[in-house]
Design brief:
296 residues, 10 helices
């Protein structure tokens, strides 16, 4: 009995320390995602304050969410992971666009920024409508709550929105998003996940659906005169932006955690998201680089 007590005591201590460590890790990740959604909230209000430039990318963002979701459900009917095919990662997409250098078309950047902001806004609406009952207090505060605070702060007169966004943008791009994504992607992915139906459906939905959905809806908006195509922006560049929009990790991972109970399917989603993000980033960069060369 004495030996058993000696053995059990450190094991309980280790177990307790592990639980505390896990709790602190989760609190840290919740803090990171809260900073990210605060940034999203600020961007949403700031961007939507320019009504003339939002109609085309906002309508295109709808296509970039609807078409991927339809493709995913066509390939994987009844899957609870359908909504993970929809979000665009604002920080990652802008980070890759920045690699194009100072010669990059500013009109394409504005279109990408507005599209990604509208995409995130619609993703928050999807999260609230379809998964609001599954959100616990921590998730609610760090996602919808933080975005609402950011949106409200941007409405305060003389609030230094531009300075705060200027500070948070690189922080989210180079620290918050990478740390959050890496910590989440390091759990639950197996070799089998890479070829699972969920992962392959997600890859197809994002690679094909984002480009087709965004380009098609942008063309349609111009065709029916709902919006106008800026003189310095071409439809081919919108398609390149559509490719970059296939990068969706942060918001998609939040939706996955809330919507999916199966750890296996969560691992499959993570595999699909990371593969589609890498391929989308490469395709989008090369596409826009070629457009830049043709413009020159």
């Amino acid at each position: 009995r004495y030996l058993n007590r000696i053995y059990e005591r450190p094991r309980r201590q280790i177990s307790g320390a592990f639980r505390i460590s896990c709790t602190l890790t989760n609190m840290f990740l919740d803090l990171l995602i809260a900073i990210f959604f605060l940034f999203i909230g600020l961007e949403i209000t700031s961007t939507l304050s320019h009504p003339k430039q939002i109609v085309l990318p906002t309508f295109a963002a709808l296509g970039g969410m609807i078409v991927p979701a339809v493709i995913f459900l066509a390939l994987n009917p009844g899957s609870p992971a359908w909504a993970t095919a929809m979000p665009t990662d604002l920080a990652l997409a802008l980070g890759v666009f920045a690699l194009l250098g100072k010669g990059a078309n500013p009109a394409a950047r504005i279109f990408l920024l507005t599209l990604a902001v509208a995409d995130d806004l619609f993703s928050l609406i999807v999260l609230a409508i379809f998964y609001g009952d599954k959100l616990d207090l921590a998730h609610s505060a760090s996602t919808l709550g933080a975005a609402a605070v950011g949106a409200a702060l941007a409405l305060i007169p003389r609030f230094p929105v531009s300075k705060i966004i200027g500070f948070l943008s690189p922080l989210c791009t180079f620290f918050v998003v990478p740390v959050y994504v890496i910590s989440k992607l390091s759990q639950g992915i197996s070799i089998a996940s890479l070829t699972s139906t969920t992962a392959t459906s997600l890859i197809a939905a994002r690679l094909i659906g984002k480009i087709i959905g965004i380009t098609l809806f942008a063309w349609l908006a111009v065709k029916i005169k709902l919006a106008y195509l800026p003189k310095d922006l071409r439809l081919s560049e919108i398609a390149g932006v559509g490719a970059l929009a296939g990068m969706g990790l942060t918001v998609a991972l939040v939706i996955s955690e809330v919507a999916i109970e199966s750890e296996k399917i969560q691992g499959d989603v993570k595999a699909g998201l990371i593969i589609s993000a890498v391929i989308s980033g490469v395709i989008g960069f090369l596409w826009l680089k070629r457009s830049l060369a043709l413009r020159s």
